[in-house]
Design goal:
Elements: E1 4-11, H1 16-31, E2 36-40, H2 42-47, H3 49-55, E3 61-65, E4 76-79, E5 92-95, H4 100-118, E6 124-131, H5 139-147, E7 152-156, E8 173-175, E9 180-185, H6 194-200, H7 209-223, E10 226-232, H8 239-258, E11 262-263, H9 266-286
Parallel strand pairs: 1-2, 1-10, 1-11, 2-3, 6-7, 7-9
Antiparallel strand pairs: 4-5, 8-9
Length: 287
């Protein structure tokens, strides 16, 4: 099988953008027969419980967590590329991480909302903004997310300058070294979304974001690697707003499936990686 894409969408705004995504996003993934995972902030799930209770039953879409209030677990310090403007800054941009007490409270509230609305807790967590190294350098944070029942993370979403793209040479890994061998880091490869491509992409060649995605898909297929890909619910409250994103996303999904890449929901990928790890361990013990 030439490569795997785990497509995750941060449905995070707790606004009509999120509501629009439950309609227009769901229609698109059904149209394309494409498995996807939506990572919801607790606020979003809390605001539109009936809509997401309906999505919970969907055969293509699974729902996982994105904290309750989009709280940062680590500080993000972006070195802005020369000649670019990122989040209004031309040199450095900083967004401070939260303290452990606030993170504890947020994740507790997030899981409670999942219980109240969906009757279960989440097992997957996308960390807001994402970080260089994910949580590999913060075993104290891994202890907290583990205690709250999260088994897989999308936390490694930036390069060494806290920018993008994240290279495909960095592939998903278990947090073995930190003492949490059962927690899988998915990463977020490439660009976090079209607006991050605007911030950090190479625009000198005339390549569009859709072109960029197709080029990366060809790499994934050729090298048979994993692409943990991200998008967001921003500006999706209307059909017209959604289509600004839906046009390139639909085109990309069709292209990737057309060259044989498979799409998996996040929990399916986690189960596959866990099984593969267990089989490799058993084989090693038999030698």
């Amino acid at each position: 099988m030439p490569g795997t894409i785990v497509l995750g969408v941060d449905v995070e705004t707790a606004s009509e953008d999120s509501l629009g995504y439950t309609k227009y996003g769901a229609e698109m993934y059904h149209e394309l027969d494409c498995p996807v995972t939506w990572f919801l902030t607790g606020k979003t799930l809390e605001k539109y419980p009936k809509e997401f209770q309906s999505i919970e039953k969907d055969k293509f879409i699974e729902l996982q967590a994105h904290t309750y209030d989009h709280i940062l677990l680590k500080t993000v310090l972006i070195k802005v590329p020369k000649g670019r403007v990122v989040h209004g800054k031309k040199d450095w941009f900083i967004n401070p991480g939260s303290n452990l007490e606030d993170i504890e409270k947020d994740l507790t509230k997030c899981q409670q909302v999942f219980k109240d609305v969906l009757g279960r807790t989440a097992v997957g967590l996308t960390t807001p903004w994402g970080y260089y190294r994910g949580l590999a350098d913060r075993p104290d944070l891994l202890e907290i997310v583990d205690r709250h029942g999260f088994k897989f993370l999308r936390g490694f979403a930036r390069d060494e300058n806290d920018g993008n793209p994240v290279p495909f040479e960095w592939q998903p890994f278990f947090y073995e070294v930190q003492g949490y061998p059962h927690i899988l880091e998915f990463m977020i490869h490439g660009f976090q979304d079209d607006f991050y491509w605007e911030f950090f992409g190479d625009h000198s060649t005339g390549e569009t974001y859709a072109d960029c995605l197709k080029r990366l898909a060809q790499k994934v297929a050729k090298e048979n690697i994993i692409w943990s890909m991200a998008s967001h619910d921003h500006w999706c409250r209307s059909k017209e707003g959604f289509e600004k994103k839906g046009v390139w996303l639909r085109e990309f999904i069709k292209f990737a499936k057309g060259i044989g890449i498979r799409f998996l929901r996040a929990s399916e990928f986690y189960e596959e990686m866990t099984k593969s790890k267990s089989e490799a361990r058993n084989t090693k013990s038999e030698v």
